[in-house]
Amino acid sequence: RAALDRAAVLLRIKRDVNRLDNVWGVGGGQRPVKHLVKEMNLLLREYLLSGEVSEAEHCLRELEVPHFHHELVYEAVVMVLEGSGEESVAMMVTLLKVLWETGLVTLDQMNRGFQRVYEELGDISLDAPLAQGLLEQLVELCFDRGVITRALRDACPTR
Question: What residue ranges are annotated as transmembrane (predicted)?
């Protein structure tokens, strides 16, 4: 499944040079942002289906973009807010906790990801009316598990 998903991403890349660069391993920082965002979304969706934290961690390392891990945090939180079910909340908290503990996601990256969600909550709520409640639940759970700081928890917009 992972090989097919990866192949589909490579085939969708428009320019042959980019396709070859990705196949032969150009470093992550040279890849287009849209490509990295797609890869992160794919990684998160696969994680929600499989529940394999180690595989998600491995895929994130392979992207080779530690300066862009705030995007993974942002996409993970938005995916929870737009999704349905409390199972995805618990799974994302588990993933964020592991990424935090292993040092893959730094304090600054975690803060930036959550802050972006806070700033865009109004727009997100238009598509997902339950987003505010889910965000409060997610933030509280992240704080309880030691994923985010008290200051970040207190910065969460409330109703």
Answer: none
